[in-house]
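FORM 7B: Structural annotation worksheet

SECTION A. Query
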Amino acid sequence: MATVSPDGAPHVVPIVFVAEGDTLCSVVDAKPKTSPRLKRLANIAANPRVTLLVDHYDEDWDELWWVRADGEARVVEEGPERRQAIELLRAKYPQYERWSEPIGAAVVIRVLRWRWWSLTGS
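SECTION B. Predicted structure
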């Protein structure tokens, strides 16, 4: 996920996410981090515009593809929307079932524009 820092510098980090329609959700989980107050959260608070890029590489280049979601993000510290994000992630990733409650905020992205490409066009 790419965010923009207050000084205009790009900040890109890999995230675990789930999609539901035109909404993408991620959460600051229990994996080791320096702090649950991450730079991406501060960046979103200052500028909600984000981009998420997912790509697939294969030795067979007919299988190459990418999808980009451009949108507006919100940091959700608590409440039903955060709990829903956690439940969606647990439904997609069995690893979340083995961990205790995620430790931080949810990031909820409203996708405003989808872009995609594949070598074969399908």
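SECTION C. Observations
DSSP finds three helices and seven strands in the chain. Helices lie at 39-46, 80-92, 95-98.

SECTION D. Sign-off
Analyst initials: ____
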